[in-house]
Amino acid sequence: MSHRVSQRISRFGQRMSGLQINLSPLKEPLGFIKILQWVAAIFSFATCGGFKGKTSFKASCPGQTKNETIEAAFAYPFRLNQVSLHETATQDPPCDVTWSSYFLIGDFSSSAQFYVTFAVLVFLYCIAALVLYIGYMNLYRESRKIPFTDFVITLIAAFLWLVSTSAWAKAVTDIKMTTGENLIGQIDSCNNKGVQCSSGSVTNMGSLNVSVIFGFLNMILWGGNAWFVYKETSLHGQSNVSTHGAGTVAPPTGM
Fold first, then answer.
1. Out of 32-46, 141-155, 228-242, which region has the weakest mean confidence (pLDDT)?
2. 9 falls within a domain
3. What is the span of the domain harbouring residue 197?
4. CA spacing 20 to 30 A to 111: which of 119, 137, 223, 244?
5. Band of residue 192 on the pLDDT scale cut at 50, 70, 90
6. What sign does the CA torsion over 227, 228, 233, 236 have?
7. Of 168, 134, 141, 173, whose CA–CA distance to 38 is shortest?
8. Does the model's pTM come out above 0.85?
9. Phi, psi of 106 (to 5 degrees)
10. CA distances from 149 to 28, 57, 143, 152, 219 (A)
11. Structure confidence at residue 159 (pLDDT)
């Protein structure tokens, strides 16, 4: 039993002895692009997950010259169908309408949460990859499985960035329409009983546009980085060997 324990300890010591801090991979495309991916992932989930906004409109009641403001506050994960309207005035409900019984339309949480969750996972993977590049690049290049695994994950990440960002871009467009130009059309009390509703204000959604931009930027970074990761795999070495082998000409035989 003690012999097995000593063997495990020695194996662990051998693995730890492979740690060699080397910052030179960060100067190469393999490591430098990974830093860019790490930064872009932060901007992706921060600009989406940290968003908070409001939308409002003006309600004019019969016999009153003052317009009352009705608003709704929404935020990540954008379950708009759970966001109710409320009046900003402290007196009785304007126009004798129970505004809190009206909710915004749409549930965009699936697209938003998928996008943010994937961005966080990418952020964590970039940290792990950078630790591997900086501390264990010797093991990385001596192994055949680790570079290939890194290459497969890079391809999958590039594809998922395309899928998640496309879905999130469509959701952002729908959120803008639901909270903006289509808001009044969702309220039955508007234009009924003499109540007149007019457009108000909505929080600028520039940060959501930025999140979409960074999503597609991540897709480009991961797709471009696939080539540099591929060069570290044994597949690239085999292709070079086969290319050089096919281009060689057999020497002439003596007569």
1. 228-242
2. no
3. 24-232
4. 223
5. confident
6. positive
7. 134
8. no
9. 115, 145
10. 19, 53, 11, 5, 19
11. 97
Model pLDDT for residues 155-186, shown as the tens digit of each residue = 999 999 999 999 999 999 999 999 987 888 88
Q: Based on the structure, what is the number of domains in the chain?
A: 1
| Least confident span in 15-29, 125-139, 241-255 | 241-255
Tell me: the pLDDT tens digits for 205-227? 999 999 999 999 999 999 999 99
Helix (H), strand (E), coil (C) string for the chain? CHHHHHHHHHHHHHHHHCCCCCCHHHHCHHHHHHHHHHHHHHHHHHHHHCCEEEEEEEEECCCCCCEEEEEEEEECCCEHHHCECEECCCCCCHHHCCHHHCECCCECHHHHHHHHHHHHHHHHHHHHHHHHHHHCHHHHHHCCHHHHHHHHHHHHHHHHHHHHHHHHHHHHHHHHHHHCCCCHHHCCCCCCCCCEEEEEEECCCHHHHHHHHHHHHHHHHHHHHHHHHHCCCHHHHHHHHHHHHHHCCCCCCCC
- Does residue 7 belong to any structural domain of this protein? no
Is residue 247 one of the residues assigned to a domain?
no
